[in-house]
Amino acid sequence: MLCEECNNREARFAVTMNVNGESVVRHLCPECMRAMNANMRGGNIAGVLSAILSAITAGEGMRRPEMREKEPAEQLPDITCQRCGTTYVQFRKSGRLGCPGCYEAFREQLRPMLQQVSGGAQHAGRRPLETLEAQRTRSRQEELTRLMQQAVALEDFETAALLRDQIHALAEEGGADA
Amino acid sequence: MNHPAVLSSRVRLARNYEDLPFDAHRPGVAETCVSRTANALALSGEDRGFALLTMASLGEDRRDALVESRMISRELAASPDSAVLLQEDDRLSVMMGEEDHLRIQAITDGLSLDEAAARCFAVEDALSRHVRFAFDDQLGYLTACPTDTGTGMRASLLMHLPMLAHHKQMGSVSSIAAKVGLNARGYYGEGNEALGDIYQISNQITLGRTEAEVIATVTALGEQLSETEAELRRNALAERRTATEDKIFRAWGILMNARLLPLKEFYSLWSALRLGAVLGLVPVSPESLDSLPVEVQDAHLRAYNEKPLTGEDLDAARAARVQSVIRAAKR
Ligand SMILES: [Zn+2]
Ligand SMILES: [Zn+2]
């Protein structure tokens, strides 16, 4: 299958995104995948959005991504949160969990859903009362780890090795401070 | 760089108490949220300047006015046991007993999400020294709706985008925004409407990215839309000057002379006038017009005139209010 972004190279990644509440799968080549990741992370939307201006002058709108077919009705598991009594079926109806304990009770069911919405299911932001400096070091570390995993997936081992060295250096720096 | 298309920035944090069910309509939940939060803020010594307002104690008009100026949500206004800790002049509020136990929110002028976030975090830190929020190492801050978990943060910009709307490009903008985990939609009106060409840009994704990354992404989209808008404005003046001026001067004429001004008509005239102000074609600054869409809402007009206005009287009060604001702003 060809990459849906460039229609040129072979697609090797399937990315699930949330578009106006609908899940959309896009198939991308490593090059477009890398570009999209860079845009998402660095907040560099300029590249993506410059397309708007050219679309206006060319007098054509942007292509809308294809929607995936709705999945057949699934059998919902019979689970109840022991703390608040909310059942998984109730949650699926309302979209609202009953209490913080529901996250533990429905952890396995929530995981794929969160993965789909966010693309990754590991919290990267603030923690209660974490100092700004500690957060910066931690998020830099996580960022580098993410980049390294991505480089490995893209078979860019040279970059992966450089990133691994940076992660070690950062860890030693943090250790020396403590 | 100046971004006249950005009207305001807003950051909102969702936080929940570890030991309480989410549903604030359950007996005692909202009351516990209110007393616990107010106590924690008082203990931290950061409560100066905050007024504690319970929804049951506020009249309907006062609640509606707070919703119109975005200080509280419609949902909060509708729950009598809920309350808000409010610094109205600084547009800082802590809603208690909403969908989540707490919604800490700050609104700032122009493109300033960092500042809005810093003000929310200061309140959150003060509270965190005395209470425990539901937090999970993997999922971050736990929220009533799992799609808010993680940072629990929504960062949004209110933008005036008349040229992009005129060129019917906002559909493309929202689908492009969705590609980078953002949402772009009309702020006033039903369904797909965007009255006054006012749009809200916000993050959809709360898990897996830091607050700083999210703010950088929303800010970048805001800047890019603002620059695109500026480019289209320049084109309009260069290529369609007479038609552009005609639309703006007509709006000026009607706004300054109408005796009755229904809300929907106001929005479209306001949009043309503000475009004229950004282009320097009318003798008022864009900033002087920014508060008008809120000032001419029903509850604001009733409060301003100290009268329970309805129907045609509201439309008359709206016309008068618009004219007095524009006259005061005239250079
Ligand atoms: Zn490609
Ligand atoms: Zn529960």
Query: Ends of chain B: how far apart?
Result: 24 Å
First-last Cα distance of chain A:
51 Å
Helix percent of chain A reads: 40-55%
Unreliable stretches of chain A (pLDDT < 50, length at least 5) are 41-71
Average of the residue pLDDT scores of chain B: 94
Q: Give the low-pLDDT segments of chain B.
A: none
Q: Which descriptor suits the 3D outline of chain A?
A: flat
- Roughly how many Å is the radius of gyration of chain A? 21 Å
State the domain count of chain A.
3
Number of helices of chain A: 7
Q: What composes the largest sheet of chain A?
A: 2 strands, antiparallel
Bin the helical content of chain B: 40-55%
Number of strands of chain B: 10
- Summed up, the domain count of chain B is 2
Which ligands are bound?
Answer: zinc ion
Instruction: Tell me the name of the CATH homologous superfamily of the largest domain in chain B.
Output: Glutamine synthetase/guanido kinase, catalytic domain
Task: State Rg of chain B.
Answer: 21 Å
Tally of DSSP helical segments of chain B: 12
- SSE sequence of chain B, one letter per element: EHEHHEEEHEEEHHEEHHHHHH
Describe what this molecule looks like in 3D:
The complex is a heterodimer of chains A (178) and B (331). With 178 residues, chain A is mainly α. Chain A folds into three domains: 1-70, no CATH class; 71-123, no CATH class; 132-174. Chain A has helices spanning 30-42, 46-58, 88-94, 102-105, 107-118, 132-153, 157-177, and strands at residues 13-19, 22-28. In chain A, strands 1-2 form a two-stranded antiparallel sheet. In chain A, α6 (132-153) packs antiparallel against α7 (157-177). The relative contact order of chain A is 0.08. Residues 41-71 of chain A have low confidence and may be disordered. Chain B has 331 residues and is of the alpha+beta class. Chain B has helices at residues 29-44, 60-68, 74-77, 113-128, 162-166, 170-179, 211-239, 241-257, 263-278, 292-295, 298-305, 311-329, and strands spanning 6-15, 51-54, 83-87, 92-96, 102-109, 135-136, 140-141, 153-160, 182-186, 198-203. In chain B, α1 crosses α4 and α11 (298-305) crosses α12. The longest helix of chain B has 29 residues, at 211-239. Classes of the chains: A mainly alpha (178), B alpha+beta (331). The complex binds zinc ion (2 copies). Residues 81, 83-84, 86, 98-99, 101-102 of chain A line the site of one zinc ion. One zinc ion binds next to loops of chain A.
